[in-house]
Design a protein that fits this description.
Chain lengths: ~110, ~120
């Protein structure tokens, strides 16, 4: 059983579409992270959330602690947004970080 | 510019050989981490270090070894005891030691190891 589940696993969309990637978790957490991994492999941290909503440019991340769910939204998607998006949580028992398997996003021009 | 470097980007080794992956950071971070990424799986923690001369096993430490002689450096050795060493290895660092929920991890570019 995976403590962190992401959906969808793969997503292909046209440029300009509004994108939503979901993350559900089953453990108590102190924080949730959204990471972006580009085809070359490097990972960039996009957001760290413990409540509410954060926005950075065209990216928006929300978290609902009661429902143990977070979403990452991309507005006006662009081919350069193509990447794997990874959800990770800090388990509040020992602060261990648990990673989801990632969502592979492909934006077509 | 501050950041984390890993070298080399691609590494090939014959089965049975030990190999050491480099990770250097100039962010003055206390904590450093090594992760392994396999296709279709989330990142898994191999080892982490919160302070110089100290390190702890992660979830999949068997077949790996590390050292932390300097704050900036956290090399990972993949030994011949590791059953499936072919993988993508990511190093990360953070400002605060593990135990704080407020630290963000900064990742290096990764090393793709292929064992032939």
């Amino acid at each position: 059983k995976n403590e962190v589940e992401q959906s969808p696993q793969n997503l292909t969309a046209q440029e300009g579409e509004f994108i939503t990637i979901n993350c559900s978790y089953s453990v108590g957490i102190s924080a949730l992270h959204w990471l972006q991994q580009h085809p070359g492999g490097g990972i960039v941290s996009l957001f760290m959330l413990s409540s509410g909503k954060k926005k950075h440019g065209r990216l928006i991340a929300t978290i609902n602690i009661q429902e143990k769910h977070s979403s990452l939204h991309i507005t006006a998607s662009h081919p350069r947004d193509s990447a794997v998006y990874i959800c990770a949580v800090n388990w509040d028992r020992d602060d261990k970080i648990i990673f989801g398997k990632g969502t592979r996003l492909h934006i077509l021009p | 510019d501050g950041g984390i470097t890993q070298s080399p980007k691609y590494l090939f080794r014959k089965e049975g050989q030990n190999v050491t992956l480099s990770c250097e950071q100039n962010l003055n971070h206390d904590a450093m981490y090594w992760y392994r990424q396999d296709p279709g799986q989330g990142l898994r923690l191999i080892y982490y270090s919160q302070i110089v001369n100290d390190f702890q096993k992660g979830d999949i430490a068997e077949g790996y070894s590390v050292s932390r002689e300097k704050k900036e450096s956290f090399p990972l050795t993949v030994t011949s005891a590791q059953k499936n060493p072919t993988a993508f290895y990511l190093c990360a660092s953070s400002t605060l030691p593990t135990g704080s929920s407020t630290d963000t991890q900064y990742f290096g570019p990764g090393t793709r190891l292929t064992v032939l």
